[in-house]
Design a protein that fits this description.
The complex is a heterodimer of chains A (111) and B (116). Chain A is an all-beta fold and 111 residues long. Chain A contains no helices and 11 strands. In chain A, a hairpin with a 2-residue loop joins strand 7 and strand 8. With 116 residues, chain B is mainly β. Helices cover 0% and strands 51% of the residues of chain B. Chain B is built from no helices and 12 strands. The radius of gyration of chain B is 14 Å and the shape is globular. The chains are: A mainly beta (111), B mainly beta (116). At the A-B interface, strand 4, strand 5, strand 9 and strand 10 of A face strand 11 of B.
C-alpha cells in the first residue's frame, strides 16, 4: 500500500491568482496522477506525471493552466494558474502500485 | 475511448439489507481491470474491490462482492448486510491492461444512503 499526503487540505483563493498543491508519497513510485473532482461530479484525470519527463495531459487540460513538477519518485506538485471560480474543485493525487491509491484531496474554492 | 456508465445516481437501502449498484463499461481491450471505490463525506477515495478481467471468478471482500459479466461488459457491486458506515458515493472505475496507461476512467457515481 501507499500513504499519500497533500498540502494544503483546503484553500480559498482570489480570482486571477495561482495555487500550488503538493503531493508526498511514502514510497517510490513511477507514475503519479492528478485528478479533478468538480462539485457533485466524478473524478477526471488532469495529467500523468512521470519522474524525469514531461507530464502527459488529458484532452481539455493544458500545461499553461496546470503546470506539474515531478522532481523525484516520491513527490509532485500541481499548480492551478490564473484561477477562476470554475476551478473550484477537489484536486486529488494518486499513485499506481498494484492498485491506485489516492491522497486525501485538496478542496479549492475560488472567489 | 473507454467509458464507464453508472445509471443509478442515487440508491437507498435499509440497514442490514442487501443492495446492488450497477456499472457498465465499454472497451475494445480483452485484458483490463475494474474497481469499485467508495468516497465518504471525508472525500477520501477508498478501494472497495478489484476485478481482473481474465479471472472468471467474481471478486469478494467480506460483505462486498461483484457480479462480473465480461461479455455483457457489466460489473455490479453487491453490498450485503448494509451498515450505516456504508453510506457514501460509490464510483466504478476501469483501467486498461498491465503495461499500458495506469490511469483510471470513472463513472459518474452512485450516492448510497443507508436508512436505520
Amino acid at each position: 500500500s501507499a500513504v499519500i499526503s497533500q498540502k494544503p487540505s483546503r484553500d480559498i483563493c482570489q480570482r486571477g491568482t495561482s495555487l500550488t498543491i503538493q503531493c508526498q508519497v511514502d514510497s517510490q513510485v513511477t507514475m503519479m496522477f492528478w485528478y479533478r473532482q468538480q462539485p457533485g461530479q466524478s473524478l477526471t484525470l488532469i495529467a500523468t506525471a512521470n519522474q524525469g519527463s514531461e507530464a502527459t495531459y488529458e484532452s481539455g487540460f493544458v500545461i499553461d493552466k496546470f503546470p506539474i513538477s515531478r522532481p523525484n519518485l516520491t513527490f509532485s506538485t500541481l499548480t492551478v494558474s490564473n484561477m477562476s471560480p470554475e476551478d473550484s474543485s477537489i484536486y486529488l493525487c494518486s499513485v499506481a502500485l498494484a492498485e491506485q491509491f489516492f491522497g486525501p484531496g485538496t478542496r479549492l474554492t475560488v472567489l | 475511448a473507454q467509458t464507464v456508465t453508472q445509471s443509478q445516481p442515487e440508491m437507498s437501502v435499509q440497514e442490514a439489507e442487501t443492495v446492488t449498484l450497477s456499472c457498465t463499461y465499454d472497451t475494445s481491450e480483452s485484458d483490463y481491470y475494474l474497481f469499485w471505490y467508495k468516497q465518504p463525506p471525508s472525500r477520501q477515495m477508498i478501494l472497495v474491490i478489484r476485478q481482473e478481467a481474465y479471472k472468471q471468478q467474481n471478486a469478494t471482500e467480506n460483505r462486498f462482492s461483484v457480479n462480473f459479466q465480461k461479455a455483457a461488459k457489466s460489473f455490479s457491486l453487491k453490498i450485503s448486510d448494509s451498515q450505516l458506515g456504508d453510506a457514501a458515493m460509490y464510483f466504478c472505475a476501469y483501467r486498461g491492461p498491465q503495461g499500458g496507461s495506469e490511469k483510471l476512467v470513472f463513472g459518474k457515481g452512485t450516492k448510497l444512503t443507508v436508512n436505520p
